[in-house]
Specification:
Udp-n-acetylmuramoylalanyl-d-glutamate--2,6- Diaminopimelate Ligase, Chain: A, domain 1, Alpha-Beta Plaits, alpha/beta, five-stranded mixed sheet, 11 helices, 18 strands
């Protein structure tokens, strides 16, 4: 992989992934984006998987990749230590760090993104047009970073901010605003100013440089500015941005082709995702017209979202025993039964990887990108 790859920085790959599945679309409880890594390092190749296991890590290393794009974040909840003998994923993350492997996770951002996990399964159902369960207000997940810079350092500082994840607005990159003005400062005896002298009020020409950044990238952006700024104490401000738009919610709904029955849809999906079995709730021959799709585990979510209430079939990954009983009792607004097709958690998510790999190849031509063959459903059917 490494010998044929065009070289991109990890930061460039992260920006491409963020453009495909904006981290702002992720659920509040999730942990998405660059989980571990250095944006300034060259990317030798990327390997995609659902779960970063020891086998996947070995496979990626053998292929010459130094970035694993794991749909499920290997660091999900806050951790207090990294231990090599742990049975949790912290041991695997530690090993990845030893091997200088970078880790990125899109998870629920990819679920909500156009062309993401739910849209891929919708396509396998034969659904042409989809909508999310509901549109929800975008949270103030972005901030505006402002830094005051000498005129001859503006481009250097701006590039550092962009490389750390700032400056993206929709499909546009490297966005900034620059305003000339005058800055003042008085250096006390303990200072060592790079401009002017201590003990004297100085007035200097400066540029106010502004760029938006994801909230989770703020620390990296500020650190990047400090590394390249000539001032001993650069003046920087961070302003939270209020939500001004709606964003796509989780899940998808859409109309199925005419004549679809619960049994036919289940068999079609079983073959399409390669699952050894699927679980079905409902009557095999019942007609289904409108599907609610939520990969992974839907629980009772579709019942509580306005647009999904008229759906007569739920397509998901797994359903708990008590949720299965709930769906057996549940009726649609027309009074008909609600069918459920559970493909298996892993099998409902895996199909998106091929699509994600193709979109990455379009955004990053020449970079070696592959889908793991060692990635496996943790369950075995006997």
């Amino acid at each position: 992989m490494a010998s044929r790859s065009k070289r991109y920085g990890i930061g460039a790959v992260v920006r491409a992934l963020d453009a495909i599945a904006d981290p702002a679309l992720a659920q509040d409880w999730d942990n998405v984006g660059l989980i571990a890594g250095d944006r300034g390092v060259s990317c030798r190749g990327a390997m995609l998987c659902i779960d970063m296991t020891a086998e996947v890590l070995d496979e990626a290393t053998a292929a010459g990749a130094n970035l694993i794009v794991a749909y499920h974040p290997p660091i999900f909840r806050p951790i207090t230590r990294l231990s090599a003998d742990s049975a949790e994923t912290d041991a695997l993350v530690l090993r990845a760090l030893y091997q200088k492997m970078h880790i990125y996770s899109p998870h629920t951002a990819l679920d909500a993104a156009d062309g993401g996990t739910n849209d891929v399964i919708a396509g396998l159902c034969g659904i042409d047009a989809t909508a999310p369960f509901e549109d929800v207000p975008a949270e103030p997940r972005q901030v505006k970073v402002v830094v005051f810079v000498p005129p001859d350092e503006v481009e250097t500082v701006a590039e550092a901010m962009f490389s750390a994840g700032a400056g993206r607005i929709g499909e546009y990159e490297r966005c900034s605003y620059r305003l000339a003005g005058t800055g003042t400062f008085f250096g006390t005896e303990g200072t060592d100013p790079s401009v002017g002298e201590r003990g004297r009020l100085e007035r200097v020409e400066e540029i106010r440089l502004e760029a938006v950044a994801p909230r989770q990238a703020v620390a990296g952006v500020l650190g990047a500015v400090r590394r390249v700024h000539s001032y001993e104490e650069p003046a920087m401000d961070v302003y939270p941005l209020d939500a001004s738009r709606m964003r796509a919610g989780i899940g998808r709904i859409g109309s199925l082709p005419g004549g679809t029955t619960l049994s036919r849809l289940a068999k079609r999906l079983k073959k399409a995702v390669g699952a050894p079995r699927v679980q079905v709730i409902g009557v095999a021959g019942q007609r289904v017209h409108r599907a609610a799709i939520c990969v992974g585990s839907a629980g009772r979510l579709p019942a509580g979202t306005p647009r999904a209430r008229d759906c007569d079939v739920i397509v998901t990954g797994e359903v708990s025993h008590h949720d299965a009983l709930y769906w057996r009792r549940r009726r649609t607004v027309e009074g008909g039964a609600v069918g459920v097709i559970a493909l298996g958690h892993w099998y409902s998510e895996r199909p998106v990887l091929a699509c994600l790999a193709e979109r990455m190849r379009e955004a990053l031509p020449g970079l070696g990108i592959s889908v793991s063959r060692k990635d496996r459903d943790p369950f075995t059917i006997v």
